[in-house]
Amino acid sequence: MKRITYKSIKGFFLLTALLFSQACDESVLDEKPLSFLSPDVTLVSNAGFQSAITALHQAVREVAGVDDQNAYWSVYFGTDLGSIGVRDAYLRNYETQLTPTFMGVNHFWDWGYLNLLPRANQIIDYAQRPTAVWADEKQKNAVIAEARFFRAYAHNMLTNLYGDVVIADKLATEPKVDYQRNKRKEVLEFAKADLEFASQWLPLTEPQPGRIVKSAADHLLTEVNISLGNYDKAIETATAVISSGRNQLMTQRFGTQKNLPGDVYSDLWKDGNQNRSGGNLENLWVIQYEFQTPGGVTSSGNGRNWLRCWGARYFDAKDPDNASGMVIADSLGRGVSWMRPSNHILYDIWKDDPNDMRNSEYNIRRKWYYNNPASKYFLKEVKFHANLDTLYHIYPAFRKVEGLSLAGATNGRTFNDWPMMRLAETYLLRAEAYLMKGDKQKAAEDINVVRGRAKAKPVAAAQVDLDYILDERLRELIVEEPRRLTLSRMGKLVERTKKYNGFATTTSTIQAKNELFPIPQKFIDANFGAKVPQNPGY
Q1: Is CB count within 10 Å lower at the N or C end of the chain?
Q2: Following DSSP, what letter does each residue of 307-359 receive, concatenated?
Q3: What are phi and psi of 376, to 5 degrees?
Q4: C-alpha 456: how far from its chain's center?
Q5: Percent helix, strand and coil across the chain, each to the nearest 5
């Protein structure tokens, strides 16, 4: 897709605010800004709108990709996944840390209302102005559809995190201090309407890797319909994705490392295997991280930091003599142990079928070997001893976060693309809709399609409930899934965190109120024209 620089994007979206601040000077209003990226100049042709759409993709990529402060990872910490390993912070203690001023609470609110939603609304607004020149209605509606997809994506995330939130339905052109929160059902209905339009007008195939297609809209629409209780509609939209003829689970080895030891599930995560050009027919939406490729990142500091979050800080591990046993290796990268997995996801969910492909050595690194040539234990397997911290330095690691770091192993970031939506999840969403409708047999059949690819034992209909589906989502979608969003959407966050988190402070301090984030205090204070109720208990 066409690239524009961060500086251009920033000017592109802040120009209106700058001009407003100078409106007292009438001569400014008479200017016709032809020499820089004003929306009045650029958003008049399809080429200009395509550049603006690039900024929508950038916004989603950067909600996590450049965050070294752990704000994004607060949708992982303090859930049934586990807790933060690197330091005693970030949702180990819910009572003291999850407050209306918590960094993670501000992060997602600001991302939605100050970043993605203004960009989407500007495109939607300008695309419908008479100054915009289109080849035909189809071209115009395709642009609007992609922007409405992202608007729905933001609203769905925000309402899953905060409950009742403000619907941002239009471009703000002047200061407003009297916003009102909309009911969650209203927010979901608004997102549903956006996604239905997107499904109608988005293309079937992406014009460039990473662009949004009809199947991605239908996938998200399935989730929204489940949240609204529209189970038949959810089944219908999921079936549209599954039966499109374009999408399929990958069941045979493929891609850049298909001739090396591994399995088809591990192939999904290898460098170069995420897009359809790499033979992957399973991914519905892929964020582009490849370094200096169309749609990818342009700076070595903007790579994908999933490895930093999920990777163990192995290179600080001591050998039994309390000497350095490990050093940073290119093949392992530089994890920081932000996310220390719980025993539930490392061991419990595999007990019924340890031969599940997703539990193979190619997908979970359970054995580590001392790699420091200076250690007398060099190349010997790391075993537990008194000098080894297994909450921080060595523990089983999910290998889907691994990848090539063009900036060097010490950078800690990888640059392989990342799937945001996969067909495997579509099957699990349809299974959830069938279950909520009361059809356990159909739910089991969909789950078994996913388990079948993993060569796992099939599940019986009688075993299927929401907890089984949530455990299957862990087996299939671990690391990929922003877990808090799913648990809050299902109303299972507090229950499963208490049961499975494994960190005493987290499980003892989480309360019913923590099912949702609080509303950011800074928004409540700034919105002085109308009272904004805080979520209960905060």
Answers
A1: C
A2: HHHHS--GGG-B-TTSSB----BTTTB----SEEE-HHHHTGGGTT-TT-GGG
A3: -75, -5
A4: 26
A5: 50, 5, 45
Distance CA 56, CA 12 (A): 12
Q: What tokens does 78 get?
A: 């303090």
CA diameter of the chain: 78
Tell me the C-alpha distance between 380 and 521, whole Å.
52
d(CA 498, CA 169): 37
Half-sphere exposure of 233 (CA within 13 A, CB side): 15
Q: Which residues of 245-274 are buried (b: 16+ CB within 10 A; e: fewer)?
A: eebebbeeebbebeeeebbbbbbbbbbbbb
Q: Token pair for residue 140?
A: 């115009």
Residues 6+ apart with CB under 8 A from 240: 199, 215, 218
Reported in sequence order, the residue ranges of 216-263 that DSSP labels E, i.e. its strands, are none
Chain center to CA of 339: 15
**Rounded distance between C-alpha atoms, residue 74 and residue 408, angstroms:** 27
Predicted local confidence at residue 99, as pLDDT: 96
- 294 CB-near residues (< 8 Å, 6+ apart): 1, 2, 3, 208, 209, 288
The span from the CA of 123 to the CA of 39, in Å, is 9
pLDDT tens per residue across span 260-309: 999 999 999 999 999 999 999 999 999 988 776 666 666 666 778 888 88
- Residue 429 main-chain phi, psi, to 5 deg: -65, -40
Measured in whole angstroms, the distance separating CA 136 from the mean position of its chain's CA atoms is: 34
Cα 321 versus chain centre, distance: 41
463 phi and psi angles, rounded to 5 deg: -80, -15
User: Closest Cα to residue 119, out of 71, 85, 153?
Assistant: 153
Q: Would you say the C-alpha torsion 410, 415, 420, 424 has a positive or negative sign? A: negative
Show the 3-state SS of 126-155. HHCCCCCCCCCHHHHHHHHHHHHHHHHHHH
The pLDDT assigned to 337 comes to: 87
Tokens read off for 401: 């976060």
Distance, CA of 124 to CA of 4 (rounded, Å): 19
The reported pLDDT for the residue numbered 15 is: 36
Beta bridge partners of 364: 398
- In angstroms, the first-to-last Cα distance of the chain is 43
Count of residues for the chain? Answer: 538
Cα 39 from Cα 48, distance rounded (Å) = 9
Query: Tens of pLDDT along 431-466?
Result: 999 999 999 999 999 999 999 999 999 999 999 999
Q: Measured between alpha carbons, how far is 50 from 31 in angstroms, rounded to an integer? A: 25
Strands 364-365 and 397-398: antiparallel
Q: Is the pLDDT of residue 396 over 50?
A: yes
